[in-house]
Amino acid sequence: MDFFERQEKAHHNTKLLVAYFVTGVALLTVAVYLASLLIFAGVASRHPRYHDDDGQAQAGLWNPQLFFGVLVGTLAVITLGSVSKTAELARGGSAVAEMLGGRLVNSNTTDPDERRLMNVIEEMALASGVPVPHVYVLDNERGINAFAAGHSTSDAVVTVTHGCLKLLTRDELQGVIGHEFSHILNGDMRLNLRLMGVIFGILCLAVVGRILLQMRGGRDRNALPLLGLVLLALGWIGVVFGRLIQAAVSRQREFLADASSVQFTRNPAGLSGALQKIGGLSYGSKLAAAHADEASHMFFSNGVGRSLFGLMDTHPPLEERIRAIDPAFNGKFPRVSVADGGAGLPAGQDAPQLDPAGSGGASLAGLAPPVIASQSVLPNLDNATTAHLHFAAALRASFPPAIQNAARDPLGASSLIYGMLLSLEPEQRNKQLQLLSQAASDDIRRETERLLPDVESIAANAKLPLVDLALPALRHFSPAQYRQFSRAIQTLIESDGKIDLHEYVLQKIVLRHLDPQFNGARKPVIQYYAIRPLVPDCAVLLSALAHAGADDAARAEAAFLQGARQLGCNAGAELAFLHSDQCDLPQVDAALNRLCQAAPQIKKSLLGACALTVAANGVIQETEAELLRAIADTLDCPMPPFLQSDEEPAAAGV
Amino acid sequence: MMGLGLGLMVLLIVLIVLFFVLIFMVSAYNRLVSLRNRYKNAYSQIDVQLKRRYDLIPNLVETAKGYIKHERETLEAVTQARNVAYAASQTAAANPGDPNAVKSLVSAESGLAGALSRLMVVSERYPDLKANQNMMQLSEELTSTENKISFSRQAYNDSVMVYNTQREVFPSNLIAGAFNFGAAESFIIDKPEQKDAPKVSFS
Which residues of B touch A108 (CB under 8 A)? Predict the structure, then answer.
């Protein structure tokens, strides 16, 4: 299953979730109504006031007023609960991590275990083409567990327990992180957060019940606490339904995530080892945090214990998961004691255990010419592979230490970005540095100048991965600092009066990932389910790509036609090749902004068409690669870095 | 029948109002917690750079020692100030935002900055030292680290301000009071050049 199919599946699962939820709410309402009937029938039979003219007590199953009242009350409670929880979670993945007691790991950490964790995560992020997520550790959790949370790759957060940090080897850690990245890339995270908000609404009834139990009513002295008790009991019905929903949605996904992780790392022993350690550890993967229930569907392994007959388990049994990826498993778990700190390494020894593929550890400037064979494009749009992982490890190691240090600190990271926007031509550059002093500060300018020689030595195709590495540090800006940063970038770009492709791509990617945090999250609303209304935009995009890759109009047109054929049957005759001044950057930008509201299947065929256009003349120019990367990023489709044509996956030292 | 209906309506309204209040309280509490976490995380950005600085300074002192043998007091003052600041930073890191811890750190940092700038003034008189490769690299890194500290301080102070404001506005201040959300202290250092030595440009 490819990325887009998985997104569609996640979308479908949402509908299933809604169906379950509506059923649950309906049943709850009926149950509350029946309970209220019983209570008030009991009340009515004792209070003469409630008897009607014949002196008979109020009876009968159907009381429209009561039913309406119950319906409104129940819906109000559930809606308010869900809405408030969802609002709280709108802050992003970090809300979940903090709710469970997570501590943010500093990217500059010197603690060897944390450093190792960060290295694994950075490599995996670079290999998948997503910004490096923020990393949290649950210090109080001795079990082995992890989760990824967030609305999108822009605010994704990966959390591991203390047990994970101390008890797993690097390979096993990589297996677990690979599993979590699979959730990030599948679009599972958003569904998970929505699920959390919704389940909290059902749990609210239990809370209200508890409060009512403590209230002293007036005339209905007997009724109120009784109602409270009933609501409490009914609230727990809500919990059961919540668990059922969580289980239904998350169970089969865990097998999928395990498989993706193995595909990524080509190392089933790692993931299998981690699962076996969970089986052998007395704490297992249990989480002690009070809020673990709400998020249990997001964890790597079962964090809340087995339920009755395993019906409401959010995860498949450990043995099944291990056998699925490692058929040789003999069913016996190794004994793991918490004192086994042997997985930790002293500082400085964390060399990537993967062999940098074929081309070796040579300077990356030599590794990556700007021209890449086109066969490597199409597979890129799907999962990253082991070859990408090797490439990412080598790439990360090849960055000079000054760059690596800078990328992990807010000031340094912003200086790197400024440095990448500076012109190569000395006079223009001085002018830009002047403007930078004014827009930001002298200190920032000095830091930028200090890093400039290293920035210039970075290979062209390593620049965007460097941005991925630097993004988590940029998220540490205060709002005022962010405003200054985006203004400074704009000033630097405008300084020469025109915007070139490189500047456009850099600005687009950086701001796209930072904006949601500082200016409110964008709501990903799908507005276009058919490609017809978007055909002019597709034309702009494909034409721009065609022109970026060819010197003359004829070749560009040929490339365009290759891509257009992919969209062909539904697009019709309106998909016309445009002249280069009709598809300049502002128009590309406008087209992209509309296209990101398209349904996943449309995005899929569009990206396929783009890939064909780019591949049409047999080689991929750097300009094409950059533009394609910006397009993929805007459409929310992480694109792994391009590999050299002779780095076939088979040769990458499996 | 009407009586039953009216009583029910009243009950429902009471319930819904109560629920609103509950939701508000929980939201306000969660918001305060999240803002508190934010400034604590912002503090850890400063802390990492502070530690880096404290690690650089002994190297600096060692390098300088070989050249300025007769300025022992200056060197010792730097080492002393560095140790005091290091200890203060440990306390502050354990309680970010705690007013006392931050105030001691601020004063320790001022002391350190003063001692360092006196050292720089003294080094001016020893051209050999100034030209030493190691010294140049160390002071370069020191400057860079100080820039980073300054930048992170800015972010920290911004987040402290947001947190303190939220603590004080109505109606969150009720929750803040009830659940002991203490005020956080900003991290503001006076520039040593304005206090002690004349402005030294070392670049």
Answer: 48, 52
Instruction: For each of the domains in chain B, give its residue range(s) and CATH number, in order of start.
Output: 44-195 (1.20.1440.20)
The CA R_g of chain A, rounded to the nearest whole Å, is 28
Tokens of A138: 């649950």
- Range list of β-strands (E), A132-252: 134-138, 146-149, 157-161
Interface mutation target, options B27, B47, B143, B147, chain A, most CBs of A under 10 Å: B147
The pTM of this model reads 0.81
Instruction: Report long-range pairs for A348-354 (Cβ below 8 Å, ≥24 apart).
Output: A349/A112, A350/A112, A350/A115, A350/A116, A350/A119, A350/A170, A352/A119, A352/A123, A352/A393, A352/A394, A352/A396, A352/A397, A353/A170, A353/A171, A354/A389, A354/A390, A354/A393, A354/A653
Cross-chain CB nearest to A84 (options B9, B23, B203): B23
Query: A149: which strand partners?
Result: A157
Say if CB A114 and CB A103 are below 8 A apart.
no
Residue-level pLDDT at A65: 78
Q: CB–CB of A207 and B23 under 8 A?
A: no
Q: If you count them, how many residues does chain A have?
A: 654
Task: Compare all CA atoms of chain A with the CA of B20 and give the residue at the minimum distance.
Answer: A80
pLDDT in tens, A339-353: 544 443 333 334 333
Q: How far apart are CA A339 and CA A281, in angstroms?
A: 11
pLDDT for the residue numbered A309: 66
* Catalytic status, residue A180: yes
Q: Which residue has the higher pLDDT, A432 or A327?
A: A432
Best to test chain B binding among A137, A476, A483, A485 (most B CBs inside 10 Å):
A476
Task: Show the tokens assigned to A323.
Answer: 């056998």
Q: Distance between CA A253 and CA A62 in Å, rounded? A: 43
Comparing alpha-carbon positions, the chain A residue that sits nearest to B148 is A411
Residue the block writes with tokens 């076996």: A276
Residues 6+ apart with CB under 8 A from B90: none
Q: Nearest 5°: CA angle at A24, between A19 and A29? A: 130
The contacts of residue A46 (CB under 8 Å, 6+ apart) are none
Chain A hits for B34, CB-CB cut-off 8 Å, are 91, 95, 98
Pair A176, A168: CB distance under 8 Å: yes
ipTM exceeds 0.90, yes or no: no
**Cβ contact, residue pair A52, B1, below 8 Å:** yes
A481 touches chain B (CB under 8 A): yes
Residues A144, A173: contact at Cβ < 8 Å?
no
Q: Which residue ranges make up each domain of chain A?
A: 394-518, 532-634
Q: How far is B194 from chain A (nearest CA, A)?
A: 18
Catalytic residue, candidates A180, A254, A624, A647? A180
Q: Where are the alpha helices (DSSP H) in A287-367?
A: 292-295, 318-325, 364-367
